[in-house]
Amino acid sequence: MSEFDPHFEPFRLNFLLRQHPEVVDMKGEVVFAAEQEEDRISGAAWSFDGDYRAYLRDSGFKLKLMELLDTLIQYRAMHVASPWKEGIVWFRDGKLSIEWLEHGSTHLTNPALEYTPATNGESE
Fold first, then answer.
1. How far is residue 72's CA from residue 67's CA, in Å, rounded to a whole number?
2. What tens digit of pLDDT does each residue of 60-74 get?
3. Is residue 116 within 8 Å of 42, Cβ to Cβ?
4. What is the pLDDT of residues 71-112, one digit of tens each?
5. pLDDT tens digits for 27-68?
6. What distance in Å separates the CA atoms of residue 25 and residue 106, rounded to the nearest whole number?
7. Helix or strand or coil: residue 105?
8. pLDDT band at 119 (very low <50, low <70, confident <90, very high)
9. I need a labelling partner for 64 at 20 to 30 A (CA). Which of 19, 33, 90, 111 fits?
10. E strand map for 1-124
11. Can you tell me the distance from the alpha carbon of 101 to that of 104, in angstroms, rounded to the nearest whole number?
């Protein structure tokens, strides 16, 4: 098995950003989580300043990001690079970045937590 490449995630996020340069102007976040039993994405909460829902859906960006998150979850699980079950993709300062969180850190896996987006946008 190959070693975990810490540049894999930022490379893939930057590649997606180059495919969708319109995303550079967006400010927001995507909170995501994987199923407990499997290393596959099971849900996400999208929150942005401004109304970008139509663009995210119609451009294919939303689907591409969800597929990428599924790939990154599987990659981290394969290399036992903990944490890998949930996190946040940040859209800010013209960049995409990812923050991995311990399982149970978001409202997607811990119903006791209330979702408070970091931005002022609407959730989707």
1. 9
2. 999 999 999 999 999
3. no
4. 999 999 999 999 999 999 999 999 999 999 998 999 999 988
5. 999 999 998 788 999 999 999 998 898 999 999 999 999 999
6. 26
7. coil
8. low
9. 111
10. 27-34, 41-49, 86-92, 95-101, 122-123
11. 8
Residue 121 has pLDDT above 70, yes or no: no
Q: In the chain, what are the domain boundaries?
A: 8-123
What number of helices (H) and strands (E) belong to the chain?
3, 5
Locus of tokens 């990659």: 75
Residues comprising the chain, all counted = 124
| Cα separation, 2 vs 79, whole angstroms | 8
Q: Which two tokens stand for residue 116?
A: 């408070």
CA-CA-CA-CA torsion for 68, 37, 81, 85, nearest 10 degrees?
60
Name residues whose C-beta falls within 8 Å of residue 80's C-beta, 6 or more positions apart in sequence. none
pTM of the model: 0.89
Axis-axis angle for helices 8-19, 61-78 (nearest 10)? 170
